[in-house]
């Protein structure tokens, strides 16, 4: 199976390095992405928006000969969902890692502070305690060392969707900060936070109790949950 890994804000392909060995050992071909503007700290991020990141994922899909599984972490979940909307017939399953699909007209996170057209990784005290569970001081240092500023427009641009066949692509939600039971209750209550997720016809939920960055805090367990979801997707 071809598995495309879409990182969240401030991260590049290397952020998946703790997860990819187990996926490869299981016989899968893994494609961790570095999205436009995240190539280096010095990269030119001017003019890069949400659609550019979605287009990069679509390009990765189009470059492969068989259907794929998409994995999106955090803000990468909204980006992956934009690619599902563009290529619903090429995606077997979308796996959301502490993430979910981004609905029409929504922004990933337009509350992050912008400096010079980009969003640097904030200080740790800007995050909720739940975000940081399991993120030890060495892991924080590792994270910050590989982090790159996020293009500001990616955080603020509004999602544009057009293909209702996106709702037919099965999804798996790996719930970290909030238990799956909470997300399921929100869906039952009709909460707008999960309105797009509620429209997907086939969704599995699984818990991985940790903070917002399980690829750092619990990489082995995350890899195993991804493998279970991939196996449930059937043959490519």
Describe this structure as you would to a colleague.
The chain is α/β, with parallel strands linked by helices. The protein has a single domain, classed as 3-Layer(aba) Sandwich (Rossmann fold), CATH 3.40.50.1820. Helices cover 33% and strands 15% of the residues. It is built from 9 helices and 8 strands. The strands form 2 sheets. It has a 6-stranded parallel β-sheet with strand order 2-1-3-4-7-8, sandwiched between helices. Helix 2 crosses helix 3. The protein is globular, with a radius of gyration of 16 Å. The termini are close together. The model has no long low-confidence stretch (mean pLDDT 97).
Write the layout of secondary structure elements.
Layout: E1 2-6, H1 20-25, E2 29-32, H2 50-62, E3 68-73, H3 75-86, E4 91-97, E5 118-119, H4 137-146, E6 150-151, H5 152-156, E7 171-175, H6 180-189, H7 195-199, E8 203-207, H8 214-217, H9 219-231
Parallel strand pairs: 1-2, 1-3, 3-4, 4-7, 7-8
Antiparallel strand pairs: 5-6
Helix pairs in contact: 2-3
């Amino acid at each position: 199976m071809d598995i495309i890994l879409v990182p969240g804000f401030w991260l590049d392909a290397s952020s998946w390095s703790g997860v990819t060995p187990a996926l490869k050992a299981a016989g899968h071909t893994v494609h961790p992405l570095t999205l436009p503007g995240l190539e280096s700290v010095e990269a030119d991020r001017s003019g890069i928006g949400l659609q550019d990141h979605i287009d990069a994922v679509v390009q990765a899909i189009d470059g492969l000969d068989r259907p794929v599984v998409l994995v999106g972490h955090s803000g990468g979940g909204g980006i992956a969902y934009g690619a599902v909307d563009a290529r619903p017939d090429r995606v077997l399953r979308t796996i959301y890692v502490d993430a979910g699909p981004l609905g029409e007209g929504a922004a990933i996170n337009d509350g992050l502070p912008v400096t010079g057209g980009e969003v640097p990784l904030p200080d740790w005290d800007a995050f909720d305690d739940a975000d940081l569970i399991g993120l030890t001081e060495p892991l924080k240092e590792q994270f910050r060392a590989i982090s790159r500023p996020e293009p500001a427009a990616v955080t603020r641009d509004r999602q544009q969707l057009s293909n209702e066949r996106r709702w037919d692509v099965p999804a798996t939600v790996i719930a970290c900060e909030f238990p799956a039971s909470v997300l399921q209750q929100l869906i039952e209550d009709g909460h707008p936070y999960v309105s797009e997720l509620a429209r997907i016809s086939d969704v599995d939920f699984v818990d991985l109790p940790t903070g917002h960055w399980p690829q750092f805090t619990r990489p082995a367990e995350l890899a195993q949950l991804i493998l279970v979801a991939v196996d449930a997707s059937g043959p490519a």
